[in-house]
Amino acid sequence: MNAPVRLRPEIAALPPYRQGKQASPDAFKLSSNENPFEPLPAVVEALHGALHVNRYPDASAAELRGVLAARFGVEIDEVHVGAGSVSILSQLLLAVAQPGDEVVYAWRSFEAYPGLVTVAGANSAQVPLDTDGRHDLQTMAKAVTDRTRAVIVCSPNNPTGEIVTTAEFEAFMSAVPETVLVILDEAYAEFVTDEAAVDGQSLTERHPNLVILRTFSKAYGLAGLRVGYAVGPAYVLDAARSTAIPLSVTEPGLRAAVVSLEHEDELLERVGRITMLRDQVRQALVDQGWKVPRAFGNFVWLPTGEHTAHAAEVFARHGLVVRAFAPEGIRVSIGESSSVDKLLAAAQELVRSI
Ligand SMILES: Cc1ncc(COP(=O)(O)O)c(C=O)c1O
Predict the structure, then answer these.
(1) 160, 218, 250: which to mutate for ligand 1, most atoms within 8 A of CB?
(2) Pick from 92, 85, 142, 91: which is nearest to 110 by CA?
(3) 88-128, pLDDT tens digit by residue?
(4) Taking Cα atoms as reference points, which of 274, 215, 263 lies closest to residue 87?
(5) Atom 8 of ligand 1, nearest CA residue
(6) Distance 354 CA to ligand 1 centre (A)
(7) Each residue of 273-322: pLDDT tens digit?
(8) What is the rounded average pLDDT for all residues in the chain?
(9) Which residues line the pocket of ligand 1, CB cutoff 6 A?
(10) b/e 217-256 (16+ beta carbons within 10 angstroms → b)
(11) Those residues with Cβ within 8 angstroms of residue 157's Cβ, 6 or more apart along the chain or in another chain
């Protein structure tokens, strides 16, 4: 088609967003790291009570921010709520980066990072993961230049599943100038079972340049309602708030998040079931002969390399929709327990041919 509108060239060059394939009714959707459990009855009830959709939501998200501030032991202005943590990440990048600036992050990591950096007008400086799928924080610190405005650290890393340790993160924070914003993306924090892992909650108010990102999409099972939050210095979060599209967090989302925190024990019991299944799946894959990185999110990573497209087809034949990142590997979410036999059968078939 004739395309007369003058687009920003770097935006026109971005691959258009395509959501992970929708699963056919009889397939398991293990491609978006979603929570397989249905919402809690209390959440469904709260949603019914939040249906005054002729009114705008509370733009300040005061109730949810108040609850989160109390949990983290911070002031309410040190908490920010967004329509998913990914939108807060976008706001933070818009707040710090101008054309010509750089944002450092590990690669491969969360697939949204490159696009969000480009949209903010900045350039990506990607630092390869090490051979175990872990962040190489020493090299990342060295990649910081005068042009660097932000560094994103993802722990556990999507898609490899490995964590950054507290010791590694502390060393990294002391090596990075305080003028550079560090964003610790902890979307999968609740699934972490390694005590050595960095925990943003213990770091808030210790660094004037650190913001942690968390979400209700994964452990709390509210992906469809789009609620995430940030904890960090008020002056940084005020800047993020200034770039935000007002009123984009909805009242049902806010209500569901507050009620989820009130019923956290039930949700964390589910998280425990998912992490147990994850550990069993990873061990079974290792036993099959796969070199699977340690998995601390709600997913496992299969390094299928040049066979990635073929591997995704094999999974599809077994009734599983997975996320393929050719030519590196396949990320498989830990979903319904009834999907595990199919997952292991597909992996067993593949390990013989790869
Ligand atoms: C590392 C990471 N950060 C952020 C997000 C986005 O989460 P949200 O649904 O809160 O926008 C995801 C979702 O897959 C993720 O994997």
Answers:
(1) 218
(2) 85
(3) 999 999 999 999 999 999 999 999 999 999 999 999 999 99
(4) 215
(5) 84
(6) 30
(7) 999 999 999 999 999 999 999 999 999 999 999 999 999 999 999 999 99
(8) 95
(9) 33, 84-86, 110, 154, 158, 185, 187, 215, 217, 223, 228
(10) bbbbbbbebbbbbbbbbeebbebbbeebeeeebbbbbbbb
(11) 106, 109, 129, 133, 134, 135, 163
pLDDT tier for residue 204 given thresholds of 50, 70 and 90: confident
H or E element, residue 346: helix 340-353
Using CA positions, which residue lies closest to atom 12 of ligand 1? 187
Ligand 1 centroid–CA 187 distance in Å is 6
Per-residue pLDDT tens digits for 158-170 = 999 999 999 999 9
For residues 296 and 293, what is the distance between their CA atoms, to the nearest angstrom?
9
- Looking at the CA of residue 226, tell me the nearest atom of ligand 1: 9
DSSP 247: T
Q: What percentage of the chain exceeds 90 in pLDDT? A: 90
The H-assigned helical ranges of 120-223 are: 137-142, 166-175
Distance 34 CA to ligand 1 centre (A): 10
Q: Decide: helix, strand or coil at residue 176.
A: coil
Supply the pTM of this predicted model.
0.96
Q: Which ligand 1 atom is at minimum distance from the Cα of 223?
A: 9
Please check the confidence at residue 21 and state whether its pLDDT lies above 70: no
| Bond into 327 cis (ω within 30) | yes
Question: Which of 164, 186, 217, 231 to probe ligand 1 with, by most ligand atoms within 8 A of CB?
Answer: 217
Q: What residues have CB less than 8 Å from 326, skipping those under 6 apart? A: 308, 309
